[in-house]
Design brief:
Shape: globular
Radius of gyration: 19 Å
Largest sheet: 5 strands, parallel
Helix content: 40-55%
Number of domains: 2
Order of helices and strands: EHEEEHHEEHHHHEHHHHH
Oligomer: single chain
Strand content: 5-15%
Length: 271
């Protein structure tokens, strides 16, 4: 079976890197726009973008960048050249925006989604693995999403650490909810939920695209470490019953902001 040319997109914290690490190891001839390192103690697969002057726009899709900074015609040019150079590839991307839909004329775009049950998992995993330094809270996230202005930069330097943490969690959760809704992540064929209950589904998905994939010991270790971010029974019950009791004392702060973001659009400091 011929391998599918694919751009694989996901939001930070969804667990895409651990899958691509296995795919790259088991399909050594495959072009992937990342190099993957070891699994860290925090449960993150370290990775670096492949610096490739031939595909500069594709390289930027692998990082957090402002969508408006992407020239769609330049992206089309990059993908056209990529198709000439490689009969098969998987390119990682973090960008979700319908302005990029023209790329679908030249390649397949697949999504790793997540259910609302896994919303706090995705946000907490991203926060704990990539924003571990308290001095970086708020300002780093605003810089990544290109929302850092002179005003927000001033505020981020003046407010206390606890408020920075809460506001950053809110911004990350709000962003994840918006992407979840506008791109229907709940209906994605692949979802982070499957990482914990259906590894066979993940393997079969990529096998059907022509790729070898057998999830091995690195995936097992990733699961063991990342279990700490799984949603609580209380959060699951709130979502299932649609009560969204974001002030429930049994919820952690990521779960509280997840429930709050599902029903509100303005920041509120939660205890």
């Amino acid at each position: 079976m011929a391998m599918t040319r694919m751009f694989l997109r996901w939001t930070g914290g969804s667990g895409g890197d651990v899958i691509l690490k296995h795919i790259k190891q088991q399909n050594p001839q495959l072009y992937i726009n990342c190099d993957f390192g070891d699994l860290t103690a925090e449960g993150r697969v370290s990775n670096n973008s492949v610096q490739h002057d031939v595909y500069p726009v594709i390289e930027s899709l692998n990082r957090y960048a402002k969508v408006s900074s992407i020239n769609v015609q330049d992206l089309i040019t990059d993908i056209t050249q990529l198709n000439r150079d490689h009969s098969h590839y998987i390119c990682k991307m973090h960008m979700f925006d319908h302005s990029l839909d023209p790329m679908r004329q030249l390649t397949t775009v697949e999504t790793i989604g997540f259910s609302t049950m896994f919303l706090p998992f995705v946000v907490q995993a991203c926060f704990c693995k990539t924003l571990a330094d308290p001095t970086s809270w708020l300002s780093d996230w605003l810089t990544k999403t290109n929302e850092l202005t002179a005003v927000t930069d001033y505020i981020s330097k003046k407010v206390n650490t606890d408020l920075k943490k809460h506001h950053t969690i809110w911004l990350m959760t709000e962003d994840a909810v918006n992407i979840h809704r506008t791109h229907d992540l709940d209906s994605a064929t692949l979802k982070t939920d499957h990482w914990f209950d259906s590894r066979g589904h993940i393997e079969n998905f990529f096998n059907q695209q022509g790729y070898q994939l057998k999830l091995a010991s690195v995936f097992d270790r990733w699961i063991d470490i990342n279990k700490q971010y799984l949603p609580s029974d209380t959060y699951i019950k709130c979502v299932q019953s649609q009560t969204y009791d974001y002030e429930h004392s049994d919820l952690n702060i990521f779960e509280k902001y997840s429930l709050y973001a599902l029903t509100h659009s303005q920041f509120k400091l939660l205890n």
